[in-house]
Sequence to fold (642 residues):
Amino acid sequence: MRSFISISLLLLALSVHGQKLKSDSTKAIEKYLPTGIRGGIDALALARNFYDESFNGWEINGDVDFYRYYLAVDYGYWARDFTDNGNIYANDGTYFRVGVDVNFLTKDPEKNMFFIGARYGHSTFSEDLEIETIDPIWGPVSSSQRNSNVNASWYELTTGIRVKMWKMIWMGYTARFKFALNTNEKGNLMPSDVPGFGSTYNPSTWGFNYQIFVRIPVRRAQSIPPEK
Amino acid sequence: MKKASWSIIALFAISCLDDPDCFQLNQNIIGISFRVLGATQPDTLYLLRIEIPGTDSVFHETTARTSVELPLNFTTNETDITFTHVKKNSVATNFLNLGYATKTQFVSDDCGSRYILSDLEVLGHDFDSIRIVDRNADKQARNNIEIYRCPEPTFLTVVFRDLYFSAGREAIRTGSIALDGITATGSAEVYYPNANQATFYLPVDTTSTETTFTFTQPDGTETTLTMSYTSAFQKRYSVCPTKTYISNLKVADSDFVRAEMVRDAQGVQKSTITDPPQPNVYVYRCQRTNLLKIDFRQRVSGTSNSFKADTVFLKSVRANYTSQIFYSNQLATTVTVPVDETQNASDIYLEYETTTDTLRLNYTRSAPTTLIDDCGAQTLFSDIQLTKPVTGVAVKSGADSLRFPPVTNIEILH
Fold:
């Protein structure tokens, strides 16, 4: 009888402990489940269509949260057109970026963000260059060259903020350090401007987006434990 | 938030720095260096000009260069380069035909396009040998191509040095010598007529094992140097004809106060004639104790008491004790003239464009004293005085003794 009581108490204890473990593990998984999907546009890219005559383009942005980690995706269209100094240059193409941002404001109840992240960028574009000029040493220079369906890839380090403005409306900016550009053109025309990356004159460059988002919540976020 | 705003401004500022500078965008400049087969030192090419079809520009006119930088024509995929230069006292022409890939890149609407040349290759040439070191042209010259010529190792390099007494002991310096000319056995040619320099490149007689060089000075003094050596007739490089190579050089005989083989840093004698030439023999002369140095000066401005060097045209500089003309029809800021070693007085005549300064000098001669063993007893000169005042001419204070190397003894203010 004494043995039966002892075994029963042990089983009861194990059962209670098991339920506690199961509850902890579920909580940990739930922490990483997305709470909302954010989609938006780059306002600077749109504004640039008006103040920069050589530019035509747009960019949409989206992200989804996994606790403090955000899967971020951008997609855009970019065309440029320059005519000056005997040079006519034009390009157009699409691009996407995909990467992860890490939020450092994990305790913010509004889920505002200050983040640092990384992206992989890819673009497919075409470009044309016509030259009719006079070089001081070699005299008249005339050529017409084209690159079709060039693929380009690069990497970015990003940082920025996302701030809840009103209900589902969010705003934020992203600063990008773009580097390690790789292009696969075949001819003698070297890419000048890669959609999504920018000028190829320097091996690395900077980019900046000012974004407006709509965030659609998909799940109620876990309550944040009070500070001790 | 304030910090965030500043970061945005900083980022825009950095973006502006990304704009390209329109200066020298093209990467079409190559560097060509000149070398001698088998030598580590660069070769010097005495260029008259370099021409490239497609442009009226002429590059590197009348200059001695060990390397040149040249632009390649980016409107085509090849460039012909013609080198006109002096070789063995006559004009020679060589060509170099280079091929390459030209890539174009639009830079900006302000700058236009740029051209990047790569994959350099030699399509043709008539030099002895050529090596491509770097196949990419750049904005500034790198060492892209080395042009080699066959060695001509038959020129002995003789360097003159002065022995002088300084700080209580013998000292040595490289010193130039004025010569009427140099003759060599086995040759009827007079080398270096009316020269005044320290280094001489002299051909040895390749048909003999010995060559004697005679150095004739303006006062008629002749000094000889005899070199012995062994010669070998060899074909050392496939692109070069068989040549005579000189080795085992030795000073066989000399009238100079001292003559010795040059040694390298390890103490090994430079007993092989090389091309480009390197010093083989040092010949020494004793200090000249009777050299009077005269400087020409002028006021910095108006009646200022500050003075600066003056350059004057001298029709001639002579002395009363010799028929030798020390300087003739030349510009000078300073002249060095020997005084009469046998007398206590000398007259120096400085003839300008329209006038002449006559400097009547008295001085004291010491009893002959041995300062340097190899030079024997020498007379020293002191107490230089002008016996007849000349306007603007004065013995410099504290410098009335003649020294070697010469120091300014007299200043002439014009």
Observations:
- Residues 1-31 of chain A form one domain.
- The mean pLDDT of chain A is 87.
